[in-house]
Amino acid sequence: MADTPPSEHTSSGQKAQPGTGTEGPVRIRLGGVPEHFNLPVHEAFERGAFAERGVDLAWQTYAGGTGQMTRALREGEVDACILLTEGAIADRMAGAPIRIISSYVVSPLTWGIHTGTASALQHHAEIYTKRYAISRFGSGSHLMAIVDAVSREHHLNEDQFIKVGNLDGALASLESGETAVFYWEKYTTKPYVDAGRLRRIGEFLTPWPCFVVAATEDILQREPKAVIRMLRTMHDACDRFMQDDQAPARVAKRYGLQARDAEAWYHRTEWAIHGWVSDKMMASVVYHLREAGIVPQDQEAQGLVWERP
User: Fold this and answer.
1) Which residues of 282-302 are buried (b: 16+ CB within 10 A; e: fewer)?
2) What is the pLDDT of residue 19?
3) pLDDT at 23
4) In the chain, which stretches have pLDDT less than 70?
5) How many CB atoms lie within 10 A of CB 7?
6) What angle do CA 299, 67, 269 make, to 5 degrees?
7) Within 10 Å of residue 79's Cβ, how many Cβ atoms?
8) CATH superfamily entry for domain 110-205
9) Is the Cα dihedral 201, 185, 168, 214 positive or negative?
10) What is the pLDDT of residue 16?
11) How much is the pLDDT for 44?
């Protein structure tokens, strides 16, 4: 199945274009998944917080996840993305012209391990010889399946992975029996579990903070001050969101979650309120990626994080 094309909206309502470097608001195209983690950014956008700092933000939604976003960054389709930490690091180490510019969510991600309702699988321990639905190679659904298997002393072969494009593709693949296993963020898939379209047979917690912001070297060279203003607005928005007792109710309403699930997710999630990226965290992710064979053992891990001017 092909990747879902990104959807986009901007503060001006016009089609997103790169920043021009001219006077006036600077256009920055920011991408992310259509999930509740990004609500602080959406709410800041909607109340005009980015525009107030001279950033004409153009949000682009990537339903195909981190793998789709890393490709979009490489091809210059978008200037920056909020994406999984391990995906950003792996793509940078593979030579992508991107840099990590900030942490975004500093708490771990809880991956639900799912199967179809007609599947005979019952337990997490039974999955490692089965076929896996992944959004695309290099995505979180691909990388975390490998990291999980390695942590339990199992090895997955490339032919076990079937690319399905996005969550809708995974649902169809599991229902047809083409695949038997699918890793996706627990609360995003919870409505499908509640509706009986998926069964969750296990969970896997990432051993590192789950989301970072990565940007292309092009936008960092052309518009470094605008990028910093964008980050300050994002950090302020995340700080505001974490202090808002009504945030879980808005999450539940906007993303179709049960109120108790939105509350549970909110109180186990912490967003970054500054741009600092831990060297130890980065080293830990690189270690796991090497152990899982996702990046070569001798691949250098330099220049991962942007050094601000």
Assistant:
1) beebbebbbebebbeeeeebe
2) 46
3) 64
4) 1-23
5) 11
6) 95
7) 28
8) Periplasmic binding protein-like II (3.40.190.10)
9) negative
10) 41
11) 98
Phi, psi dihedral angles at 289 (to 5 degrees): -65, -35
Q: What is the pTM of this model?
A: 0.85
Distance CA 184, CA 132 (A): 12
- For tokens 């270690």, name the residue: 287
CB-based contact 251:36 (threshold 8 Å)? yes
Q: Looking at residue 14, what is its pLDDT? A: 40
- Closest by Cα among 244, 248, 290 to 265: 248
Show the DSSP H helices in the chain as ranges.
Answer: 39-46, 49-52, 66-74, 85-93, 140-151, 167-176, 186-194, 217-222, 224-242, 247-255, 259-266, 279-291
CATH topology match: 7-108+209-291 vs 110-205? yes
Going from N- to C-terminal start, the domains of the chain cover 7-108+209-291, 110-205
Tokens of 49: 């917080």
- The structural architecture, per CATH, of the domain 7-108+209-291 is 3-Layer(aba) Sandwich (3.40)
